[in-house]
Structures are given as structure tokens and as C-alpha cells.
Design a protein that fits this description.
The chain has 178 residues and is an alpha+beta fold. Among the domains are: 53 residues, Ubiquitin-like (UB roll) (Roll), CATH 3.10.20; 67 residues, 434 Repressor (Amino-terminal Domain) (Orthogonal Bundle), CATH 1.10.260. It is 39% helix and 15% strand. The protein has six helices and three strands, in the order E-E-E-H-H-H-H-H-H. Strand 2 and strand 3 form a beta hairpin. Helix 3 packs across helix 4 and helix 5 crosses helix 6. The two termini are 46 Å apart.
């Protein structure tokens, strides 16, 4: 295909460095693109644009210490969970998991939650930090709590084991089965 800018060169698929602007920050990412062999004009097909979006988001994630798309997918797959089961494990909607796997950038609190729910070392570090922050008497174990039964209708279907039910906003079908 002839270059639509110079009209002389031919557009060829090759690896190219492309500027990306994510949340006000500039990054240079390497992606497959159509590049004119005469003037260097670079354009992306729809498929290349999807890869560019993920590469751009991942550059931002790396710069901010967030899990990349591949790291997020690997964490879910390491646990052997479907997207729905993973969403239940995290306590988020399945659409959030789908968006994150498609390249949407998670916020820092979601990233921390994902790490705590998928990375044993991150969970251990969090536990050590929590224990050191608590007064010694709080580290002795759970405090006994007396719960008075309620008859309110919003507790109907609530499961204390899964935290699911109408009042929790979590789906009662959340289980960790893949």
C-alpha cells in the first residue's frame, strides 16, 4: 500500500517506537505498526492500536509500580480461576477484571488488593506490617463479638461465610471454583 502522506513510499509492517500519552504522562512504546519506507510516516491498524493501548497502559503501570496486564492475567491463571471466580475472590465486579485484563489501568488501592489476594509474600508482608502497627494486646487474637439476631429483610439470603447476599452487594453465587 502506498503512503498516503508522501505518495512515494510503501507502508510496511515493522516494529516502531511510538509516543504515548497516558494520564498526562508521556511514554515511548515499541509496537508493530505500518511505517512508510520513504518518509517514515507511522500508522496503526485496529489490531495494532489495541496492542498500542495495552503497551501504553503497561508503560504507565511499570512507571507507577502497578501490575501490568500480563502480570494481572498470570496471577489469575496461577490460581486457576475464571474471570468470574477471580472477581468474587477480589470482591469486585467481573467487568473490572475484564477491563484490567484488556488494558484498563487499575488504581493503587485495587492493585494492592490484587496483590494481597494473589501473592503470598505480599500478604505476609502486609500481616507483619499490621501486627507491628497494632498494640500488643490487639495481637492476642480475635475479640469475641456478640451478635444480636435481626429480622430485617435486607439480611435475607446473607451468608456469613461468603459475605454474600443482598445487603452486601456481592452475588450469592460467588465461589472460588473456577
Amino acid at each position: 500500500m502506498k503512503c498516503f502522506v508522501c505518495g512515494i513510499g510503501t507502508m510496511r509492517v515493522q516494529s516502531a517506537i511510538v509516543e504515548a500519552n497516558v494520564r498526562g504522562e508521556s511514554f515511548r512504546v515499541q509496537v508493530e505498526a505500518e511505517v512508510c519506507d520513504h518518509c517514515g510516516e507511522t500508522v496503526l491498524t485496529d489490531a495494532q492500536a489495541d496492542a498500542y493501548s495495552i503497551a501504553s497502559a503497561d508503560a504507565y503501570r511499570r512507571a507507577h509500580g502497578l501490575l501490568t496486564t500480563d502480570e494481572f492475567k498470570a496471577a489469575r491463571k496461577r490460581l486457576g480461576l475464571s474471570q468470574r471466580a477471580f472477581a468474587c475472590r477480589l470482591g469486585v465486579g467481573v467487568n473490572s477484571v475484564k477491563r484490567w485484563e484488556a488494558g484498563a489501568i487499575q488504581d493503587e488501592s485495587s492493585d494492592r488488593l490484587i496483590r494481597l489476594c494473589t501473592d503470598v509474600e505480599a500478604a505476609r508482608t502486609n500481616l507483619r506490617e499490621l501486627e507491628s502497627a497494632l498494640p500488643i494486646e490487639s495481637r492476642l487474637g480475635p475479640v469475641p463479638v456478640t451478635v444480636q439476631a435481626e429480622t430485617r429483610s435486607d439480611w435475607a439470603g446473607f451468608s456469613p461465610l461468603t459475605g454474600s447476599g443482598p445487603a452486601s452487594g456481592r452475588s450469592p453465587d460467588c465461589s472460588y471454583a473456577a
